[in-house]
Amino acid sequence: MGKAFYITTPLYYVNAAPHIGHSYTTIAADCLARYHRLKGEEVFLLTGTDEHGQKIEQAAADAEETPQHFVDRMVERFTALWQLLAISYDDFIRTTEARHVQIVQACLRRLHDDHQLFHTTYQGWYCTPCETFWTAEELGQTPAASTPACPSCQRPLEAVTEDGWYLPLRASQAWLQGFVRSHPRVVQPQTRFNEVASLLEQPLPEYLCITRPRQRVGWGIPVPFSQQHVTYVWFDALLNYISVPGYSREPERFQRLWPADVHLIGKDILRHHAVYWPIILHALGFADDEMPRTIFAHGWWKIGEQKMSKSRGNIVDPTVVIQELLEGQPYAADVYRYFVLREVPFGQDGGFSDEAIMTRLHADLANDLGNLVHRTGSMMDRYCQGRVPMPGPVGCAVEDEALRQEALGLPKRLEASMDLLNFSGALEAIFQLVNHANRYIETRAPWQLAQASQTARLHTVLGMLAEAIRIVAITIEPFMPQVSSAIWHQLGLGSSPKRLVDCSRWPGLIAGQSMGARAVLFPRKDRKDVEGS
Ligand code: MSP
User: Fold this and answer.
1) Measured at the alpha carbon of residue 134, what is the angle toward residues 130 and 140, in degrees to the nearest 5?
2) What is the C-alpha to C-alpha distance for residues 45 and 7, in angstroms, rounded to an integer?
3) CA of 462 to the centre of ligand 1 (A)
4) Quick check: CB of 237 below 6 Å from ligand 1?
5) Ligand 1: does its nearest atom lie under 6 Å from the Cβ of 301?
6) Distance between CA 139 and CA 141 in Å, rounded?
């Protein structure tokens, strides 16, 4: 068996409920996974939760619960959201699970036995919300400066002096710099690659602390060779990417999954993934061709001009958007998925607002896609007794060729975008076909053909439209899986599988086959049913 396409999301901290930012990375990962499955590839999509560390410990204390009880309760908020959003993960890892803890301890032991770690005292700054150490050098700080802010989240840092175990960073800098230079696609998009390249032009901190003193942070994986320490939460969490595929435990499975094809992350955790993570792997003995293939860092969702944060009180809960703002939409979760993938080019920052979602719902989904499916379906009911029409003797007339070519060319355009994780570009290509088909309805005016009793031509036109819709239903599956299934049922294709390769078949529908029951995909609140107008 060949290598599976392995995609990861970050492991989300369970100190608070998931918000749109968390859902964004996970939806993007799911979309990519579904796309590769549609191509017939074996895929492994991994997500999960980061459950150790100081901030979880503090959140549990604030909730007057034990950390374990707290994380057990909070993780359900994440799994429930992923279910609502139809996230098709293949595994869900919680860092408190024994299968992960064992591998983290095995890695620590291995580094310790290889004399790669050493014990010393750290003096510097710590950001608890980011669970990240910052050296004075990294902050560009003069000795007299007052409490600095975290360069990532801007919150005040805490001065810490801790003894601990350290992994050299600077000693691996030259190797990492060479690796990044010779793998220009390892960090994407280009802006993030440039950021990493310039970070590596400055001296890295000498060492990365990979433990925390137990008397300060009790909630972590015990360090096997030191009773006074628990594992630093980032060292613990990053290792999930290899612990789940079976590192050091299931060699065959590990070989089938590793290296990760895409680590999807937000830009806030680029340094951890593009600097610390490869250096950890390198220290564990991973060769250059065993490094992650792509680390893609997307942008931030903002509310107006502001970053979302608990302290600003502007956190948007996806469940509220789906259940309240989109109330009455039968495919509300898909509307939300469509919005986040379509609204902002992947990699850039974007503004989140209720108005922007409603505009996408009304313009792209109800007016364009919903209208196409509804009008075609009702005309097939009216003029073809709800069956796939037999094409007329002319077959595919010259004037129809443009629509057919656009539909048959869609998989290539989709691939070109999806290879770059350009989700909005991929959706644009699909909607070009939707709009082309809508224009085709207007110019071919099937109702006039019916009036003029040009039945053969009428059937050809409706058959063309049904084929275009079939191709839309297949290609839209990674983005809107439930809408895709609804259209599939309306085409009478029931539970037959959707495969990208079937987009090159024309016709793919069988003449005479019955269509399924129809329903409005994106009903408008203000009007009963505008789609068939
Ligand atoms: N636990 C670490 C990751 C460990 S991975 C081995 C962590 N967790 S987190 O809960 O803070 O999630 C961070 C991720 O959530 C970001 O990288 C990004 O994927 C997503 N987002 C959080 N806020 C976001 C926005 N406002 N906008 C877009 N995504 C952001 O860091």
Assistant:
1) 130
2) 5
3) 47
4) yes
5) yes
6) 5
Please report, for residues 162, 288, 519, the alpha-carbon distance to residue 245 in angstroms, rounded to integers and kept in the order given. Answer: 33, 19, 42
Domains in the chain, CATH or no CATH each: 337-504 (1.10.730.10)
Q: How far is the CA of 298 from the centre of ligand 1 (A)?
A: 10
Torsion of CA 98, 100, 105, 107, to 10 degrees: 160
pTM for the whole structure: 0.96
Largest Cα–Cα separation, the chain: 89
Check pocket membership of 199 for ligand 1, CB cut-off 6 A. Answer: no
User: Are 480 and 337 spatial neighbours (Cβ–Cβ below 8 Å)?
Assistant: yes
For the chain, list residues with pLDDT below 70.
Answer: 141-145, 392-398, 526-533
CA angle 254, 7, 93 (to 5 degrees): 70
Chain center to CA of 204: 30
Question: How far apart are the two ends of the chain, measured CA to CA in Å?
Answer: 52
pLDDT in tens, 100-114: 999 999 999 999 999
Q: How far is the CA of 12 from the centre of ligand 1 (A)?
A: 6
What does the pLDDT look like over 175-194, one tens digit per residue?
999 999 999 999 999 999 99
Centre of ligand 1 to C-alpha 205, Å, is: 23
Ligand 1 lined by 25 (C-beta under 6 Å): yes
Edge-to-edge strands of the sheet including 295-298?
Answer: 91-94, 43-50, 5-13, 262-266, 295-298, 187-188
Ligand 1 centre to CA of 130 (Å) is 10
Q: Please work out whether the CB of residue 50 comes within 6 Å of at least one atom of ligand 1.
A: yes
- Token reading at 344: 């902002």
Dihedral sign for Cα atoms in the order 358, 362, 368, 371: positive
The pair phi, psi for residue 89, each rounded to 5°, is -75, 150
CA nearest neighbour of 301 among 7, 28, 98, 107:
28
Mutate to test the pocket of ligand 1, among 7, 15, 24, 423 (most ligand atoms within 8 A of CB): 24
Backbone angles phi and psi of 404, in degrees to 5: -60, -45
Q: pLDDT digit string (tens) for 381-394?
A: 999 999 999 876 65
Between CA 338 and CA 483 the distance in angstroms is 10
C-alpha 268 – ligand 1 centre gap (Å):
7
- For the residues of 25-80, what is the DSSP string, one character each? HHHHHHHHHHHHHHTT--EEEEEEEE--SHHHHHHHHHTTS-HHHHHHHHHHHHHH
Ligand 1 within 6 A of 193 CB? no
CB of 82 closer than 6 A to ligand 1? no
* pLDDT mean across residues, the chain: 94
Name every residue whose Cβ is closer than 8 Å to that of residue 134 and which is 6 or more positions away in sequence: 124, 125, 126, 127, 148, 150, 151, 157
